[in-house]
Amino acid sequence: MVDHPILSLLPPDLRALAAALGTAQLNPRNPSVDAQRIVNAAVASEVATELQDLAASGLTPSGIALHF
Predict the structure, then answer these.
(1) pTM of the model
(2) Which DSSP category does 5 fall into?
(3) Coil/strand/helix, residue 10
């Protein structure tokens, strides 16, 4: 298992994820359904969990987008 599933995403998926966070199309506090629309279904659950963890640590959606 990768420590940071987001880092295992391909560049186009990272850009799509950052764009969705930046435009509020993805809510990092409840990302499970939204993540499935943006990234590969095989990693969507792990990415959603990581987004929730980052949001719980106090990062804003824009801050999360910049984090990666």
Answers:
(1) 0.85
(2) G
(3) coil
Q: How confident is the model at residue 33 (pLDDT cuts 50, 70, 90)?
A: confident
Give Cα separations from 66 to 1, 15, 42, 59, 61 (angstroms).
23, 11, 24, 10, 9
37 vs 39: CA distance, rounded Å: 6
Domain layout of the chain by residue ranges = 5-67
pLDDT tens string 36-59 = 889 988 889 999 999 999 999 999
Q: First vs last Cα of the chain: how many Å apart?
A: 18
Number of H helices, E strands in the chain: 4, 0
